Amino acid sequence: MKISSVKIIGFRNFKNAEINLTNKTLIIGANDVGKTNFLYALRVLLDRSLSELAIEPMDGDFYAYKETNEFSITIKFEDVSDIVRAKMRELVSPEGVLFIKYKGTRAPDTGKKEGFIYAGEEDSEEKLTILQGRYYLKVLNMRYIGSNRDLYSYIKREKKYLLQESKENRTEEEKDADVARQNTIQGQLENINNDIRELNYIKKATTGINTELEGLSVHNEDHEIVFEVGSYEPTAFIDGAHLVSQVNGRNLAIGGDGRNNQIFLSLWASKNKIDEGTPTETVFFAIEEPEAHLHPHQQRKLAEYLAESLASQVIITSHSPQIASRFAPSAIVKLGVNNNLETTAASNGCTDVLRTAFIEFGHRLDAISAEVFFSNGVFLVEGQSEVLFYKALANSINIDLDRLNISILMVDGVGFKAYIDILNALDIPWVLRTDSDIFKVPRRDPAEYRCAGIQRAFGLFCHTRKIDIGDPATYQHDQDMVNAVTSLPSLSGLSSSEIPDTLNGTISEFKTLVAQENIYLAKTDLESDILNSPLKDTLEAFISAYSAKENVSDVLKEMQKQKATFMYHFLREHNDNLTQLDGDSICEPLLAMKDIIENNG
Q1: Which residues pair with 409 in a beta bridge?
Q2: Band of the pLDDT at 192, cuts 50, 70, 90?
Q3: How far, in Å, CA of 475 to CA of 462, rounded?
Q4: What is the mean pLDDT of residues 182-191?
Q5: Is 147 helix (H, G, I), strand (E, B) or coil?
Q6: Burial of residue 422 (number of CB atoms within 10 Å: 0-12, 13-18, 19+)
Q7: Angle at CA 487, nearest 5°, toward 485 and 492?
């Protein structure tokens, strides 16, 4: 049995969202986007630790950004288990589909709030039946663990359960051995307590108390107050056992937030493992931020452990790129906020749209690029030198990348399409910058050149707008763009020095057009564009010192062979000079990304 989808209307920061889930689902998104609210929506209907009083509607439950007096949470279940069928009977469809719905209302005149629960085989008024309470929780429920985890309080609550369960699972031989050992422990406890009372400072500590008591009443003459270290009863003494960590046979107090988090979740998962025998209930699990206080390797391992050890459906929320990079592509739900401040799920959650995009993304999916899943916007660049440069430039022109949640990501070449597809599938805005490469076609006489940069940008523009050049109907609204590219001047018979002048007008017109889709074309490439910017004097002086050569064109070729190394050394010495670029066209992609983020929220 599984939760296949959740529909939330008018609840907290969800105006109208339908979110598909899978068996092991990861919910990701920025802070305050609604991950906890999504889990709480599920808990309202499924968490039996929440009382009937706790789930009654409050003013804060109604949609936050528009006046409304009604909200609803609808959970769709598929492949309903036999035990739930037996409890819910005719409310389950023959195909094994069940809807359970919570509806909250608020009277406009009095403000009176009420909550109602419905169930049925379809999400329609005709097929839903109002329920008297959450009686189904006996066989259908969710166990939830929040982000605030107190190991010691949990152990105190659960120790008795853990010990009792272990007792019940003993063999007869183990029980007999334990009884014999407990008898031995009882004698040892008596000896230990007697020895302790004979310690001089222990005896003297209670002498004054006993003398005063005898003076108060004759009835106290037969009583003596003494110190002891524990119970004479072995069972009571053993029940006082507490967890420690043993290293090389020596006990260490359990400490460290990361270690405590691992122990907490391990105990919780162990307790909540579903009995593989005949089940008495169908249970789902919701876990918030398992990565707390753990280093990257353990973040990945803990998420994997939780997903594998809990046999039923598991929903995990996380801020960790490490965890995101390890989850199945079709199992990720990316929550975000649109221009109207509504929380929505990219591609409606777990769908084939995301799966297909991730397949194309392929080997590129790792912990570094997974950072972008949590971004408000992504700036795509070709290589590491652009990453270094634009991070430094952003700081110099007062664009705070971290405050705006902007990631700068290199595609390590010109393979932008796979990145565009994954970002679109995740509803993450993007801009990109690519070089205006012009390559000489080999073995052509007279010389012939290919405008690779323009063709690349044109291809990305068509990909984004879904234009098929073979089908004029798909580009009728982009005729200017198609004309600009198809009417490129002939580049045969020219020398390389003549090409820029020949293309000057065409490239300028083309850049304006592709910028409509946030595609930014360099004048030439990053190094050449900097060299022809207000940084020219600074750069030429640095080049001369850096390479001990005075011929700038020769050094530029060397720069382009070791782009990232050169850029690193240049920025180390001249980072402060980047303010000279404020207002230059080289800043356009950064400014566009900033504008997108600020307009979105």
Answers
A1: 380
A2: confident
A3: 9
A4: 83
A5: coil
A6: buried
A7: 105
DSSP 69: S
**φ/ψ of residue 99, rounded to 5:** -110, 135
Kindly state whether residue 102 falls inside one of the protein's structural domains.
yes
Residue 34, by phi and psi: left (phi above 0), alpha (psi -120 to 50) or beta? left
477 pLDDT above the threshold of 90: no
For the record, the structure tokens of 479 come out as 């005729």
Among 365, 290, 367, which Cα is nearest to 24's?
Answer: 290
Cα 396 to Cα 333, 393, 530, 536, 580, distances in angstroms: 35, 5, 15, 17, 9
* Residue 336, beta-bridge partner list: 344
352 in any annotated domain: no
- Residue 97: name the closest of 106, 112, 84, 110 by CA: 84
Q: Which domain holds residue 200?
A: 151-256
Same domain, 375 and 272: no
169 and 31, same structural domain? Answer: no
User: What is the SS3 assignment for 485?
Assistant: helix
Cα(461)–Cα(273) distance, integer angstroms: 51
Q: pLDDT tens for residues 393-436?
A: 999 999 999 989 899 999 888 889 888 988 888 888 999 999 98
* Preceding omega of 296 cis (within 30 degrees of 0): no
Type of residue numbered 152:
Y
Q: Return the structure tokens found at 398.
A: 């007062």
Q: Assess contact for 382 and 438: CB atoms under 8 A.
A: no
Residues 318/28, Cβ–Cβ less than 8 Å: yes
Domain count, the chain: 3
Q: What is the 3-state secondary structure (H, E, C) of 121-180?
A: CCCCCCCEEEECCCHHHHCEEEEEECCCCCHHHHHHHHHHHHHHHHHHCCCHHHHHHHHH
Residues 492 and 571 in one domain: yes
Specify the amino acid at residue 465: R
Q: Classify 101 as helix, strand or coil.
A: strand
CB 216 within 8 A of CB 167: no
